Amino acid sequence: MKPEYEKYFRNNLPHIWCAGCGHGIVMSAWARAVNQLGLDKDQCVAISGIGCSSRITGYIDMHTMNTTHGRALTFATGVKMARPDLNVFVFSGDGDGTAIGGNHFIHACRRNIDMTVVLMNNNIYGMTGGQFSPMTPFGKKATTCPYGSIDRSFDMAELAKGAGATFVARSDIFHAKHLTDMIVAGFNHKGFSIIEAVSSCPISYGRRNGTPDPRDMMDNIKEMCVMKAAYDKLSDEEKANKIPIGILQQIDDAPEYTSEYEKLVERVQGGAK
Amino acid sequence: MANVRLVQGNEACALGALKAGAYNFFGYPITPSTEIAEHMAEMMPKCGARFVQMEDEIASIGAVIGAAATGRKAFTATSGPGFSLMQEAIGFAAIDEVPCVVVDVQRMGPCTGLPTLSAQGDIQQARFGSHGDHAIIALAPSSVMETYYMTIQCFNLAEKYRTPVILLLDEEIGHLRERFDVDPDEEVEIINRKQPTCAPEDYLPYENTEDDVPAMAYWGKGYRYHMTGLTHNQKGYYSSVLPEVDAFNRRLTRKIEGHIDEFWESEDFFVDDCDYLFIAYGSVARTAQEAMEELRAEGIKVGLLRPKTIWPINEAKIKKACEGKKAVIVPELNLGQYAREIERVIGKPVEKVTRVDSELVLVEECVDKVKEVLK
Amino acid sequence: MSSHEKYKIRLSGSGGQGVIKAAVMLAEAALVDGRNATQSQVYGPESRGGATRAEVNISDGPILFPKVENPGILLCMSPESFEKFGADIAPGGTLILDGDVGEGTKGVKNYRIPITDTCRDLDPKGSDLSANVVALGVLNGLFDFVSRDAIVESLYRNFKKKVAELNWKFYDAGYEMGKNAKPFEL
After folding, report:
1. Angle CA(C22)–CA(C26)–CA(C32) in degrees, nearest 5?
2. In which element (H, E) is residue A169 found?
């Protein structure tokens, strides 16, 4: 690791992620973003839930919380309402964020508190050994859908857009530099920012779905993830196996909750006097 | 006289929380606790504090813990169904030793039960609701005035012992309006969490200190550390090292139960001068006290021990109080949840007066029970 | 009120009639007069309709048991509330029936007073919202629990100034009816 990023980590690596796991790439893309932003880590908070993705907070040298399953956004809401001056990052996974944490997910999008969420999507519950998540594609196999999933899957970005998120982006572990850019852009957006980081799980997902080799998974991601501008030009047929990356929604004039609350306090206190 | 007014229990709780310095409230509407949220929504912005109505009770307690972790005083208020939903996160507050207050205005259960009606059915849940071993502090007020002061005390105990504290109101007290005579500017003791004095690099957020309560640094002051719901070492990192796990889990209980004499409180009436002893808490203690007065007027020697601190139970105190009594009578609005604990402590059966029809135990029911035992 | 007298009062009606508010105002007035009071209520899931009961204890001494099991004074403002609570009244107590509600009870002093109708007469376009203030007046007219000054203070504490002022005529009309009411027995 380059020394300029090393300062954002505690000296307790190696991490727990398997060889070939994409989450380390997400972590380093995030560290590059933080370095680029030049943040004071004492004024930064990183909060996660439960799962492989959520172990990241153990390694980061900030105020960190590895909370309960699915609830990172609720703790983050508390932190921001207590200390709006702190910079808050939230890390989640596809299961943590869109299944057990689904309700908090949509309400965090709606409420629009200034924080930056990185949701690592590896299409599977990795930590518990490979059960399907709401983002496991239809027909794919997992230990709890050994015959192929008959569950329709979420498109997290569309879900976030529908719930009113003011910054929605997607990137992936192949386009790691782009992922950093998306995290920087998300951080600079005043409001709730969510970035889906398409990641990979060769052990729990790839092995059951014909791509046990991390390199194949990486190739698939490279094939599948297309810059939004290019994606928009594709025919419907061509779009079938592609997903767009880039900023998918940005609303700059939506009221940010903690600022609105400051205004409310001023209004109420002004009225009371 | 100037301050005397009619105040509801739930409002007294809200006023007490503000007096204690509560900066954050996160909650979800649920009868019969909703008035607390409504008061906070109205008053907090006026005081420069922060109220948020969350999407559910799980979100509410999560946000409370997040806010409290940074250094603020934070609380939520709920009732049975919401209290059930909060249990996992209460465990997080326990294992990460985050000071916070959960107000549970008990209503009739199980499940949705009778939302607008009273019960004391969450007594055991307050103690054992979250999985795993940890002690908890729970207080139960019997009047509107006491609700005010006890709410302040909840915040103080939370900060002193780095623990979630449960205020166990029952609907009867939460919705009762009565005389409230408090000078809002009165000076009250406010306790804040102990701060580290060492250098940040030497800071152990979960240190095995002599008093069993480690210092908890406010955020943004250089003391960065990790909080995790995983069992952790003194530094805060995941640990499965047997002696570390053992020491940690034992300290979590010891830091409260081992220090019970520092904070446990009861109100005693003729405890040393009675043949028949009522043990009652919350609204029912008022019934028991009236029954005691009636019976004593008839020359029957009856006493009352009213634990204000419901959990942990003060075994030594209860044992001593019950010694040599002809009968111990525990009236409560459940089928004997606290009676069961008293029986465990004193090693013999107690007499129960139970109601689970949502009405308060009547004075005559307590009187009749003593007379029945007399025979 | 003699120094040791204790009043156990239950006001009942359907949700929306404001019996809880009337109970609150009565209890608050008692505090203003330097007495003790508790006020509690039992209500169903309905914001409007159903049978609501609000209770007030007034005493010069401490009040322990905070509820009213067998009221010495029972007000019924709806047929359902009389059906549900009529039998709870203590022997020798006082039952106040609003208009044509209920038939009365044996062994108690029954009063039939047109509370809601009086409210309508005073404010024909209104929505009976002040019937509870008429009821408060009736109760205090019958028993003089609390001083007029205390009622004034209580009304101002519980309503915005303008509303409190509008409510005076309702209170006074109720008080007059209470003063002049004649009981009947079954």
Report:
1. 145
2. strand A167-172
Give the chain A residue whose CA is nearest to the CA of B71.
A82
Cross-chain Cβ contact B116/C44 below 8 Å: yes
Q: Are B182 and B3 in contact (CB under 8 A)?
A: yes
Is residue B192 within 8 A of residue B213, CB to CB? The reply is no
Burial of A270 (0-12, 13-18, 19+ CB in 10 A): exposed
The token pair that represents B322 in the structure block: 């019950």
Chain A neighbors of B60, CB-CB under 8 A: 74
What does the block give as tokens for B343?
């029986």
The answer to whether B251 touches B208, Cβ cutoff 8 Å, is yes
Is B62 in contact with A81 (Cβ distance < 8 A)? no
**Does residue B110 belong to the interface with chain A, where contact is any CB pair within 8 Å?**
no
- Residue A61: give its domain's CATH number: 3.40.50.970
With 0.95 as the threshold, say if the pTM is over it.
yes
Q: Answer yes or no: is C20 within a domain.
A: yes
- With CA atoms as reference, the chain B residue closest to C37 would be B178
Nearest to C41 among B175, B179, B283 (CB): B175
Decide if B83 contacts B129 (C-beta within 8 A): yes
Say yes or no: A90 contacts chain B, CB-CB below 8 A: no
Q: Which residues in chain B have Cβ-Cβ distances shorter than 8 Å to C39? A: 6, 176-178
Residues near A212 by beta carbon (within 8 Å), at least 6 away in sequence: A202, A206
Range of the domain at C132: 6-180
Total residue length of chain A: 273
Q: Set out the domains of chain B in order of their start, with CATH numbers.
A: 4-181 (3.40.50.970), 267-374 (3.40.50.920)
Asked casually if ipTM beats, i.e. exceeds, 0.90, the reply is: yes
Number of domains present in the structure of chain C: 1
Q: What tokens appear for A112 in the block?
A: 């629009």
> Cβ–Cβ of A71/B54 closer than 8 Å?
no
- CATH at residue C115: 3.40.920.10
Q: How far is CA B354 from CA A153, B130, B339, B347, C49, in A?
A: 51, 26, 10, 20, 31
Domain span holding position A266: 21-272
- What distance in Å separates the CA atoms of residue A119 and residue A194, rounded to the nearest whole number? 7
Residues of B in contact with C42 (CB under 8 A): 116-117
User: Collapsing DSSP states into helix, strand and coil, what is residue A23?
Assistant: helix
Q: In this complex, which of B26, B54, B228 lies closest to A66 when CB atoms are compared?
A: B228
Indicate which of B53, B227, B232 best probes the interface with A, i.e. most A CBs within 10 Å of its own CB: B227
Compare all CA atoms of chain B with the CA of A111 and give the residue at the minimum distance: B54
Question: Is position C27 within any domain?
Answer: yes
One pLDDT digit (tens) per residue for chain A, 273 residues: 677 888 999 988 789 999 999 999 999 999 999 999 999 999 999 999 999 999 999 999 999 999 999 999 999 999 999 999 999 999 999 999 999 999 999 999 999 999 999 999 999 999 999 999 999 999 999 999 999 999 999 999 999 999 999 999 999 999 999 999 999 999 999 999 999 999 999 999 999 999 999 999 999 999 999 999 999 999 999 999 999 999 999 999 999 999 999 999 999 998 654
As given in the structure block, the two tokens for residue B64 are 């409370």
Interchain CB distance below 8 Å, C65 and B290: yes
Asked, for residue C74, whether it belongs to a domain, the answer is: yes
What 3-state class would DSSP assign to A112? coil
A-B CB pairs within 8 A amount to 137
Q: Do chains A and C touch (3 or more CB pairs under 8 A)?
A: no
Q: Does B217 touch chain A (CB under 8 A)?
A: no
| B88 interfaces chain A, CB cutoff of 8 Å | yes
CA gap B214, B206 in Å, rounded = 6
Residue C81 in any domain: the answer is: yes
| Encoded tokens for A204 | 């729990």
Helix (H) or strand (E) holding B253: helix B242-257
Name the residue of chain C whose CA is nearest to B178's CA: C38
Which residue from B minimizes the CA distance to A63?
A: B224
